[in-house]
Amino acid sequence: MATYCIGDIQGCYAEFATLLRKIHFDPQHDKLWLTGDLVNRGPDSLNVLRLVKSFGQRAITILGNHDLHLLAIDRGAIKAKPHDTLNDILTAPDRDELCTWLRQQPLLHHDANLGYTMVHAGLPPQWDLATALQRAAEVETILRSECYADFFAHMYGDQPNGWSDRLTGWERLRMITNYFTRLRFCDEHGNLELINKGKPNTPPPGFLPWFKWPQRANKNLKILFGHWAALEGRTDESNVFALDTGCVWGKCLTAMRLEDGKLFNVSCTKKTAIGF
Predict the structure, then answer these.
(1) Which of 255, 251, 215 is nearest to 231 (CA)?
(2) Residue 251: CB partners within 8 Å, gap ≥ 6?
């Protein structure tokens, strides 16, 4: 039995299926971890969702910003953007079943036996594992409740841009969501810089990639994450693993076998890549 973690798929079904064949994934014996952003921008988000859902408990996926975006569109909280490629899901006969399933997925997954923690974007410097689990549960609880449509109506926004224990209501839930699904650069106190999406070696003044703050409370964790394709799979940190390697942008889709750290990847096809 092996456990494989795969970076952001974003509707790249053909590459996802090819990568599963390459690693000889056996859903009867192996486990699959997915860093979120299953959908959007790639050509076949519907079949990605259907396949992952079919694996049942053998696959663990966390929610990324594009997954939440789909759910917000599904509930009418926002209209689809011109570059979204979600219409195959929104017109599918199993739309409700798929979106209900997706809404039940967590924002963070931790496995004490394997010694890995998986998030979509990152963790702010001031949160240790126990705090991160508590904060994730706050959002997960409302997503799984009858009030989930209200959450999507208040989810979007860049404010507040930093954490305070005094935050309440929708601002608190929005801040938690932005940390888990949008974080790249932050200052030492966890204040967000949400504009810059580029290389980590050119941070805005006063900011660093979230995993570069030396005193961060989660430094002891082995963290798997996606979201930041510009990293090209490199963090230069021995226990922080960037797995979004930009398949949808014409690069590759990557899997990491957690038992030994071995990497596997497949190249993007021109049919998938944005811009072709």
Answers:
(1) 251
(2) 229, 232, 245, 267, 268
pLDDT digits (tens, 9 = 90+) for 89-120: 999 999 999 999 999 999 999 999 999 999 99
Q: What is the rounded CA–CA span in Å between residue 28 and residue 249?
A: 32
Of 253, 245, 255, 249, which is closest to residue 272 (Cα–Cα)? Answer: 249
Q: Which of 261, 171, 182 is nearest to 224 (CA)?
A: 261
CA 210/CA 179 separation, integer angstroms: 10
Fold of 3-267: Purple Acid Phosphatase; chain A, domain 2 (3.60.21)
Sign of torsion over alpha carbons 43, 184, 35, 258: positive
pTM as predicted = 0.96
- Say if residues 7 and 226 touch (Cβ distance below 8 Å): yes
- pLDDT at residue 269, rounded to an integer: 85
> How far apart are alpha carbons 65 and 76 in whole angstroms?
16
CB 224 within 8 A of CB 118: yes
Task: Indicate the SS3 state at residue 42.
Answer: coil
Q: What is the DSSP string of 140-168?
A: HHHHTSTTHHHHHHH-----S-S--TT--
pLDDT, one tens digit per residue, over 137-147 is 999 999 999 99
Quick: pLDDT tens for 181-207. 999 999 999 999 999 888 888 899 999
